[in-house]
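U., I forgot to send this yesterday:
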Amino acid sequence: MNYRHAYHAGNEADCVKHALLMLLLRALMRKNKPLFVLDTHAGTGAYDPASIEAAKTGEWRQGIGRLLEANPPELADYLDLVRGLGLYPGSPALARAILRPSDRLALCELHPEDAALLKRRFRADPMVQVHRRDGYEALGALLPPPERRALILIDPPYERPDEFATLAAALGAARQKFPSGVFAAWYPVKHRAPVRDFLADLAAHRIPDMIACELLLRPPLDPARLNGSGLLIVNPPYGFEAEAVPVLSALRATLADADGDATITRLTDE
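Result:
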Protein backbone atom coordinates (compact mmCIF):
# COMPACT_ATOMS: atom_id res chain seq x y z
CA MET A 1 0.00 0.00 0.00
CA ASN A 2 3.02 2.32 0.33
CA TYR A 3 4.35 1.92 -3.22
CA ARG A 4 3.78 4.89 -5.53
CA HIS A 5 4.89 4.44 -9.11
CA ALA A 6 5.11 8.20 -9.68
CA TYR A 7 8.65 8.09 -8.28
CA HIS A 8 9.76 5.53 -10.89
CA ALA A 9 7.61 6.16 -13.98
CA GLY A 10 9.54 6.21 -17.22
CA ASN A 11 12.64 4.51 -15.81
CA GLU A 12 14.51 1.76 -17.66
CA ALA A 13 12.22 -0.95 -16.32
CA ASP A 14 9.11 0.90 -17.50
CA CYS A 15 10.62 1.27 -20.96
CA VAL A 16 11.27 -2.46 -21.24
CA LYS A 17 7.80 -3.35 -20.00
CA HIS A 18 5.95 -0.85 -22.17
CA ALA A 19 7.90 -1.42 -25.39
CA LEU A 20 7.18 -5.15 -25.13
CA LEU A 21 3.56 -4.47 -24.14
CA MET A 22 3.07 -2.57 -27.37
CA LEU A 23 4.43 -5.53 -29.35
CA LEU A 24 2.07 -7.91 -27.58
CA LEU A 25 -0.96 -5.73 -28.19
CA ARG A 26 -0.15 -5.18 -31.85
CA ALA A 27 0.34 -8.92 -32.36
CA LEU A 28 -3.01 -9.76 -30.75
CA MET A 29 -4.79 -7.10 -32.78
CA ARG A 30 -3.86 -8.77 -36.05
CA LYS A 31 -6.95 -10.89 -35.61
CA ASN A 32 -10.21 -9.11 -36.26
CA LYS A 33 -11.77 -10.33 -33.01
CA PRO A 34 -12.55 -8.44 -29.78
CA LEU A 35 -9.75 -8.32 -27.20
CA PHE A 36 -9.97 -7.93 -23.43
CA VAL A 37 -7.02 -6.31 -21.64
CA LEU A 38 -6.64 -6.63 -17.88
CA ASP A 39 -4.04 -4.56 -16.00
CA THR A 40 -3.89 -5.90 -12.45
CA HIS A 41 -1.68 -3.19 -10.90
CA ALA A 42 -2.57 -0.16 -12.98
CA GLY A 43 -1.34 2.80 -10.90
CA THR A 44 -2.71 6.18 -11.94
CA GLY A 45 -2.48 5.62 -15.70
CA ALA A 46 -0.06 8.44 -16.58
CA TYR A 47 2.69 10.39 -14.82
CA ASP A 48 4.17 13.88 -14.96
CA PRO A 49 8.01 13.92 -15.18
CA ALA A 50 7.89 17.43 -13.69
CA SER A 51 6.05 16.27 -10.57
CA ILE A 52 7.59 16.47 -7.11
CA GLU A 53 7.78 12.67 -6.94
CA ALA A 54 9.56 12.30 -10.29
CA ALA A 55 11.95 15.15 -9.47
CA LYS A 56 13.06 13.40 -6.28
CA THR A 57 14.46 10.41 -8.17
CA GLY A 58 14.97 11.65 -11.74
CA GLU A 59 14.77 8.02 -12.87
CA TRP A 60 12.92 8.91 -16.05
CA ARG A 61 16.00 10.71 -17.37
CA GLN A 62 17.92 7.43 -17.59
CA GLY A 63 14.95 5.70 -19.21
CA ILE A 64 12.44 7.41 -21.46
CA GLY A 65 14.56 10.58 -21.52
CA ARG A 66 17.45 8.73 -23.16
CA LEU A 67 15.18 6.86 -25.54
CA LEU A 68 13.45 10.01 -26.76
CA GLU A 69 16.82 11.63 -27.35
CA ALA A 70 18.32 8.64 -29.17
CA ASN A 71 15.05 7.85 -31.01
CA PRO A 72 15.94 4.30 -32.18
CA PRO A 73 13.74 3.32 -35.14
CA GLU A 74 13.03 -0.11 -33.62
CA LEU A 75 11.04 1.66 -30.88
CA ALA A 76 9.17 4.09 -33.14
CA ASP A 77 5.70 2.72 -32.30
CA TYR A 78 6.22 3.05 -28.56
CA LEU A 79 8.02 6.41 -28.68
CA ASP A 80 5.48 7.97 -31.04
CA LEU A 81 2.73 7.07 -28.57
CA VAL A 82 4.69 8.55 -25.66
CA ARG A 83 5.13 11.82 -27.57
CA GLY A 84 1.52 11.91 -28.70
CA LEU A 85 -0.08 11.13 -25.35
CA GLY A 86 1.86 13.65 -23.28
CA LEU A 87 3.18 13.15 -19.73
CA TYR A 88 4.58 9.63 -19.40
CA PRO A 89 1.84 7.15 -20.26
CA GLY A 90 1.58 4.12 -18.03
CA SER A 91 0.32 0.82 -19.34
CA PRO A 92 -3.36 1.88 -19.04
CA ALA A 93 -2.86 4.95 -21.25
CA LEU A 94 -0.73 3.07 -23.78
CA ALA A 95 -3.21 0.22 -24.08
CA ARG A 96 -6.22 2.52 -24.33
CA ALA A 97 -4.55 4.57 -27.07
CA ILE A 98 -4.47 1.66 -29.52
CA LEU A 99 -7.50 -0.42 -28.56
CA ARG A 100 -10.22 -0.77 -31.18
CA PRO A 101 -13.93 0.00 -30.58
CA SER A 102 -14.62 -3.72 -30.13
CA ASP A 103 -12.00 -4.09 -27.39
CA ARG A 104 -12.29 -3.60 -23.62
CA LEU A 105 -9.88 -2.55 -20.87
CA ALA A 106 -10.16 -3.36 -17.15
CA LEU A 107 -7.85 -1.61 -14.69
CA CYS A 108 -7.28 -2.64 -11.08
CA GLU A 109 -5.56 -0.55 -8.42
CA LEU A 110 -5.67 -1.06 -4.66
CA HIS A 111 -3.96 2.13 -3.42
CA PRO A 112 -6.89 4.48 -2.55
CA GLU A 113 -5.37 7.71 -3.88
CA ASP A 114 -4.06 6.12 -7.07
CA ALA A 115 -7.35 4.33 -7.66
CA ALA A 116 -9.21 7.63 -7.31
CA LEU A 117 -6.94 9.30 -9.85
CA LEU A 118 -7.33 6.37 -12.21
CA LYS A 119 -11.12 6.55 -11.98
CA ARG A 120 -11.10 10.27 -12.72
CA ARG A 121 -8.84 9.76 -15.72
CA PHE A 122 -11.16 7.24 -17.37
CA ARG A 123 -14.53 8.22 -15.88
CA ALA A 124 -16.06 9.20 -19.23
CA ASP A 125 -14.66 6.27 -21.21
CA PRO A 126 -17.17 3.45 -21.82
CA MET A 127 -14.41 1.08 -22.99
CA VAL A 128 -12.59 1.22 -19.64
CA GLN A 129 -13.64 -0.27 -16.32
CA VAL A 130 -11.71 0.78 -13.20
CA HIS A 131 -11.79 -1.40 -10.09
CA ARG A 132 -10.37 -0.55 -6.70
CA ARG A 133 -9.43 -4.10 -5.81
CA ASP A 134 -6.50 -6.42 -5.28
CA GLY A 135 -4.99 -7.34 -8.65
CA TYR A 136 -4.41 -10.98 -7.76
CA GLU A 137 -8.02 -11.33 -6.62
CA ALA A 138 -9.13 -9.85 -9.94
CA LEU A 139 -7.49 -12.73 -11.82
CA GLY A 140 -10.03 -15.08 -10.30
CA ALA A 141 -12.97 -12.68 -10.56
CA LEU A 142 -12.55 -11.35 -14.11
CA LEU A 143 -11.23 -14.38 -15.97
CA PRO A 144 -12.15 -15.91 -18.31
CA PRO A 145 -13.67 -12.89 -20.09
CA PRO A 146 -16.63 -13.08 -22.49
CA GLU A 147 -14.32 -12.17 -25.37
CA ARG A 148 -12.29 -15.37 -24.82
CA ARG A 149 -9.21 -13.49 -26.06
CA ALA A 150 -7.20 -11.50 -23.54
CA LEU A 151 -3.89 -9.98 -22.56
CA ILE A 152 -3.35 -9.89 -18.81
CA LEU A 153 -0.57 -7.64 -17.51
CA ILE A 154 0.59 -8.36 -13.95
CA ASP A 155 2.98 -5.74 -12.60
CA PRO A 156 3.15 -5.91 -8.79
CA PRO A 157 5.38 -3.56 -6.74
CA TYR A 158 7.54 -6.34 -5.20
CA GLU A 159 7.40 -4.76 -1.75
CA ARG A 160 6.46 -8.04 -0.12
CA PRO A 161 9.23 -10.61 0.45
CA ASP A 162 6.99 -13.37 -0.92
CA GLU A 163 5.95 -11.50 -4.08
CA PHE A 164 7.70 -13.90 -6.47
CA ALA A 165 6.00 -16.91 -4.85
CA THR A 166 2.64 -15.13 -4.84
CA LEU A 167 3.01 -14.29 -8.52
CA ALA A 168 3.97 -17.84 -9.48
CA ALA A 169 0.97 -19.27 -7.66
CA ALA A 170 -1.36 -16.67 -9.20
CA LEU A 171 -0.09 -17.40 -12.70
CA GLY A 172 -0.53 -21.12 -12.19
CA ALA A 173 -4.12 -20.71 -11.00
CA ALA A 174 -5.03 -18.14 -13.69
CA ARG A 175 -3.54 -20.26 -16.46
CA GLN A 176 -5.63 -23.23 -15.32
CA LYS A 177 -8.78 -21.11 -15.29
CA PHE A 178 -8.08 -19.42 -18.64
CA PRO A 179 -5.63 -21.60 -20.64
CA SER A 180 -5.76 -19.51 -23.83
CA GLY A 181 -5.02 -16.14 -22.19
CA VAL A 182 -1.79 -14.29 -22.89
CA PHE A 183 -0.21 -13.43 -19.54
CA ALA A 184 2.64 -10.92 -19.19
CA ALA A 185 4.25 -10.60 -15.76
CA TRP A 186 6.94 -8.00 -15.04
CA TYR A 187 9.71 -8.80 -12.56
CA PRO A 188 12.80 -6.99 -11.26
CA VAL A 189 16.32 -8.36 -11.52
CA LYS A 190 18.51 -7.27 -8.61
CA HIS A 191 20.50 -10.45 -8.28
CA ARG A 192 19.99 -13.74 -10.03
CA ALA A 193 18.98 -16.08 -7.19
CA PRO A 194 15.39 -14.79 -6.61
CA VAL A 195 14.67 -14.83 -10.35
CA ARG A 196 16.11 -18.33 -10.70
CA ASP A 197 13.90 -19.56 -7.85
CA PHE A 198 10.87 -17.81 -9.39
CA LEU A 199 11.35 -19.52 -12.74
CA ALA A 200 11.85 -22.87 -11.02
CA ASP A 201 8.63 -22.30 -9.09
CA LEU A 202 6.79 -21.62 -12.34
CA ALA A 203 8.15 -24.86 -13.78
CA ALA A 204 6.73 -26.68 -10.76
CA HIS A 205 3.30 -25.28 -11.64
CA ARG A 206 3.68 -26.94 -15.05
CA ILE A 207 2.78 -23.87 -17.06
CA PRO A 208 3.44 -24.53 -20.77
CA ASP A 209 4.53 -22.10 -23.50
CA MET A 210 6.53 -19.58 -21.45
CA ILE A 211 9.31 -17.22 -22.46
CA ALA A 212 11.29 -14.65 -20.47
CA CYS A 213 12.46 -11.38 -22.07
CA GLU A 214 15.14 -9.62 -20.02
CA LEU A 215 17.20 -6.46 -20.20
CA LEU A 216 20.17 -6.36 -17.82
CA LEU A 217 21.56 -2.87 -17.41
CA ARG A 218 24.66 -4.41 -15.82
CA PRO A 219 25.58 -7.81 -14.36
CA PRO A 220 23.13 -8.58 -11.51
CA LEU A 221 25.68 -8.70 -8.71
CA ASP A 222 24.48 -5.99 -6.31
CA PRO A 223 21.16 -6.94 -4.63
CA ALA A 224 20.73 -3.35 -3.42
CA ARG A 225 20.30 -2.06 -7.01
CA LEU A 226 17.76 -2.63 -9.75
CA ASN A 227 20.16 -4.14 -12.28
CA GLY A 228 17.57 -5.06 -14.86
CA SER A 229 14.07 -6.37 -15.38
CA GLY A 230 12.16 -8.98 -17.28
CA LEU A 231 8.78 -9.74 -18.75
CA LEU A 232 7.59 -13.31 -18.39
CA ILE A 233 5.07 -14.18 -21.10
CA VAL A 234 2.72 -17.15 -21.12
CA ASN A 235 1.25 -18.04 -24.53
CA PRO A 236 3.22 -15.44 -26.55
CA PRO A 237 1.47 -14.60 -29.84
CA TYR A 238 2.81 -16.07 -33.06
CA GLY A 239 5.88 -14.18 -34.26
CA PHE A 240 6.33 -12.23 -31.03
CA GLU A 241 9.73 -13.70 -30.15
CA ALA A 242 11.26 -12.68 -33.48
CA GLU A 243 9.75 -9.19 -33.27
CA ALA A 244 11.06 -8.71 -29.73
CA VAL A 245 14.70 -9.30 -30.69
CA PRO A 246 15.36 -5.91 -32.36
CA VAL A 247 13.33 -4.08 -29.71
CA LEU A 248 15.40 -5.55 -26.88
CA SER A 249 18.60 -4.92 -28.83
CA ALA A 250 17.69 -1.24 -29.22
CA LEU A 251 16.84 -0.99 -25.52
CA ARG A 252 20.18 -2.52 -24.62
CA ALA A 253 22.12 -0.23 -26.95
CA THR A 254 20.44 2.88 -25.52
CA LEU A 255 19.93 2.09 -21.83
CA ALA A 256 22.41 -0.55 -20.70
CA ASP A 257 26.03 -0.30 -19.64
CA ALA A 258 28.72 -1.83 -21.84
CA ASP A 259 28.48 -5.10 -19.87
CA GLY A 260 24.68 -5.21 -19.99
CA ASP A 261 22.72 -7.83 -21.87
CA ALA A 262 19.38 -8.53 -23.52
CA THR A 263 17.97 -12.05 -23.83
CA ILE A 264 14.89 -14.02 -24.78
CA THR A 265 14.75 -17.43 -23.15
CA ARG A 266 12.19 -20.12 -23.84
CA LEU A 267 11.34 -21.68 -20.49
CA THR A 268 8.74 -24.26 -21.49
CA ASP A 269 7.47 -25.58 -24.82
CA GLU A 270 3.97 -25.18 -26.13
